[in-house]
Input
Amino acid sequence: VPGGGLRDGSLVKFKVGEGGLVFDETGVPTSADLVYEGVASQKRQSADALTKIVFQYNARREPITIGEILGAVQRQSSS
Output
């Protein structure tokens, strides 16, 4: 599913997988087992505040490319 219906500004849904969240010794989140669930409902106009904070924190520390996101979506779709 190339692109999976994603376009600029799309909100996507993830759930935390069995691997959970990983924090370092100072309590800073270092990684998470996130499972892509699809594009969020059109009725939902914006992400919640905690999601925005976590996203911005991670985007500034370890930015990922749209190619990496699409690759993860494709791997998840094929399993």
In short: The first strand starts at residue 12 and ends at 23. The beta strands are 12-23, 29-39. The chain is about 35% helix and 30% strand. The chain has a mean pLDDT of 78.
